[in-house]
Design goal:
The chain is about 70% helix and about 0% strand. It is an all-alpha fold. InterPro entries: DUF7512.
Length: about 55
């Protein structure tokens, strides 16, 4: 049957996919931390007034 075959994984391909996933997780956590630290300051700077703390 066409389209139902299980592809053979090349170790290099699996390593590349793993590296991309780890990079995506690191960027997600890193940018989230930066937003948490600098977000209120930037909102006050750009908009003026107080940013609501949540």
């Amino acid at each position: 049957m066409a389209g139902l075959e299980i592809p053979a994984w090349d170790p290099e391909t699996a390593l590349l996919i793993g590296a991309i996933l780890l990079e995506a997780i690191a960027l997600y956590v890193g940018y989230g931390g930066l937003e948490r630290v600098f977000g209120p300051y930037l909102m006050r700077l750009l908009i003026g007034g107080e940013a609501s703390a949540q």
